[in-house]
Amino acid sequence: MIHITSLVCLNDDEIIETFIRSSGKGGQRVNKVETAVQIRFNAKISPAIKPDVFERLRRIAGSRMTGEGVIIITAEKYRSQMRNREEATQRLKSLIQKALVVQPIRRATKPSKNAKKKRMDSKTIRGTLKKLRSSKDYD
After folding, report:
1. Is residue 27's pLDDT more than 70?
2. What is the rounded distance in angstroms from the CA atom of residue 21 to the CA atom of residue 35?
């Protein structure tokens, strides 16, 4: 059982882990040991993920989510299977936690009359200053 929040938990059978050979350093054992882990989580059919959360998750996950709603996370940072497994699980947790947060709707606002007046006054002052700097005689 993976606890995302106090209300959202994922069952272990919802997550499919496969171990693959990782790229990079490893020396003689690089072609023998499968230390990288790939986690697959089907968010579309998961009872813990509600439809509105799924839509936010789709936006956040981007290319990590397939068309069928399966999130694929690969971790190969460490040389040990357990640490890569923990990192992949942590990345999945943080992805779902971000999707659980509902962003407030932004309401468009207009600048106040006083702000507009200040802006125009400062532009007038700046323009006058530039005119005074020029060597031309405007009389």
Report:
1. no
2. 6
Bridge partners (DSSP) listed for residue 3: 9
Indicate left, alpha or beta for 24 from its phi (over 0: left) and psi (-120 to 50: alpha): left
Does residue 68 register a pLDDT over 80? yes
Q: Which of the two residues, 26 and 96, has the higher pLDDT score?
A: 96
Half-sphere exposure of residue 8: CA atoms within 13 angstroms, side-chain side: 20
Query: DSSP of 42-97, one letter per residue?
Result: ETTT-TTS-HHHHHHHHHHHGGGB-TTSEEEEEE-SSSSHHHHHHHHHHHHHHHHH
Q: Can you tell me the mean pLDDT for 82-88?
A: 89
- Pairwise CA distance, residues 11 & 61, whole Å: 20
Q: Which domains does the chain have, with CATH numbers?
A: 2-100 (3.30.160.20)
pTM recorded for the entire structure: 0.65
